[in-house]
Amino acid sequence: MSALYVHVPFCQHICSYCDFCKVFYDEKWAWDYLKALSFEIKDKALSTSYDSIYIGGGTPTALTYQQLQYLFELLKPFSKQVQEYSIEVNPETMDQEKLELCFQNGVNRLSIGVQTFRDDLLKKIGRVHTSKQVLELIKDAQTIGFQDINIDLMYGLPDQTLEDVQADIQQLCQLDIGHVSYYALILEDHTILKNMNYQPLDDEEDAKWYHFIRQELKKYGFHQYEVSNYYRYKPSLHNLVYWHYQDYEGIGLSAHSLKKHHRYENTKSLTRYLNHHYLENDIPLSMEDCLFEKIMMGLRLNEGISLEEMNRLFDIDFQVKYQDVITKYQNMNFLEITNGYLKTTSLGMNYLNNILIDFLEDEQG
What is the pLDDT of residues 130-188, one digit of tens each? Predict the structure, then answer.
């Protein structure tokens, strides 16, 4: 599998919890940015055989119809063999014309930033769309022909209750949506909510809510395949490239790439990017780096890590090397080995960070 990520940093509004690389939309800046993106594409001499393209942000649909059309033209040489072509969508910036433009240009998957269907909670996190706009957008998209739709939901929002979460899940399941990404609210530095001193869920409450969400989604036919991701019909190919720790290309402001044991990081400075200085860091990864990162990504997946693959890729006996860590968490029912795969158990998912810290310390020790 090979994947291309395209970052569009522009937003009409800045949400109070968001720490992604973004800037307020300006029409001239957006055109200048697309021209700079064209330069990066030509300069990198990208592959033409991607299995997945993902346009993320920011808010890609903050672009005008003409700007989106220009972006799709830039990406056309790379979309001929694509199986999954995704774009992130915010309800307040998407209309019928843009939906049809996306569909006509081969986009076959929408990822809609919903967060919650409660309008009052949306206002508290700085979202400007309404639940009515979400429902209309989904209906229009399905009418046009989009069958693969993901929606992002969040829990732990200010004044949100478990009953609100249950209502969100019930609404989701009435819409014939095939995929949901369900994230806990995390207060990152320099975000509005962090500066307002909002207190998120403590670890015990977070575990309780997380368990509730998993059980509710399972009841409605959703399969969890990663810590925060669930599908009814099929998982996201693009996400699986990341979690299987396969190479991918990233273009645009702040985008990352992983290629041949190197991580490439693009600049977060719009000024530098517009002046064609896109690459900020080229970080060589040691075999130890790659080993830990593959563990870190693989244990997020329900399928876990193939022990045979780890032994082959890194020329080790994985179970011998990490015997102490594996045994410790097997005894706590946090890890299990099934059919040659090391997996995080349902209970262990709540303590994944602790498990990974022990793997890292064992590696460094």
Answer: 999 999 999 999 999 999 999 999 999 999 999 999 999 999 999 989 999 999 988 65
Domains of the chain: 3-242 (3.20.20.70), 291-365 (1.10.10.920)
What is d(CA 184, CA 201) in angstroms, rounded to the nearest whole number? 9
> With contact defined as beta carbons under 8 Å apart, do 342 and 300 qualify?
no
Please give the pLDDT value at position 17.
47
Task: Give the DSSP letter string of 84-120.
Answer: EEEEEE-GGG--HHHHHHHHHTT--EEEEEEE-S-HH
Q: pTM of the entire structure? A: 0.92
For the segment 34-58, what is each residue's pLDDT rounded down to a tens digit? 999 999 999 998 887 899 999 999 8
Question: Which helix (H) or strand (E) is 6 found in, with range?
Answer: strand 3-8
Q: Name the maximum alpha-carbon separation found in the chain.
A: 59
| Chain length of the chain | 365
b/e burial code for range 78-102 (CB count within 10 A of at least 16 → b): bbeebebbbbbbbbbbbeeebbebb
Task: State the burial class of residue 290 (Cβ atoms within 10 Å of its Cβ: 0-12, 13-18, 19+).
Answer: middle
Angle, CA of 332, 351 and 164, to the nearest 5°:
125
Q: Could you give the CA distance from residue 204 to residue 181 in angstroms, rounded to a whole number?
A: 21
Closest to 59 in 3D by CA, of 50, 51, 68: 68
Element containing residue 329 per DSSP (H, E): helix 323-331
For residues 358 and 352, the answer to whether their CB atoms sit within 8 Å is no
- Averaged pLDDT for residues 117-128: 90
